[in-house]
Design goal:
By secondary structure, this protein is mainly alpha-helical. The chain contains 5 helices and no strands. Helices cover about 70% and strands about 0% of the residues.
Length: about 80
């Protein structure tokens, strides 16, 4: 029998990685502060950034690449090596 708690969902895993990259690219004390900093840079609403932080929505490839560049190459290299 399949155990849902042990299932791997690539969409959730990708959203989690993107969330972590957002925190790395826009260090902040709260979701709201991060959203206020990131929204104008990424050209989206603050609400959209909060949805990404809460893993409610996936981001487009364009947004992912922008955040990767901002977060720094060392984070990307560590993720690829893991």
């Amino acid at each position: 029998m399949k155990n849902p708690a042990q299932s791997f969902d690539p969409a959730i895993s990708g959203r989690r990685r993107f969330r972590d990259l957002l925190w790395r690219a826009f260090p902040s004390d709260s979701e709201r502060a991060l959203a206020q900093r990131a929204a104008p840079v990424l050209g989206v609403s603050e609400r959209q950034v909060i949805n990404w932080l809460r893993e409610e929505h996936g981001a487009s490839v364009d947004h992912v690449w922008k955040v990767i560049v901002l977060a720094g190459a060392e984070v990307v290299i560590r993720r690829i090596a893991a």
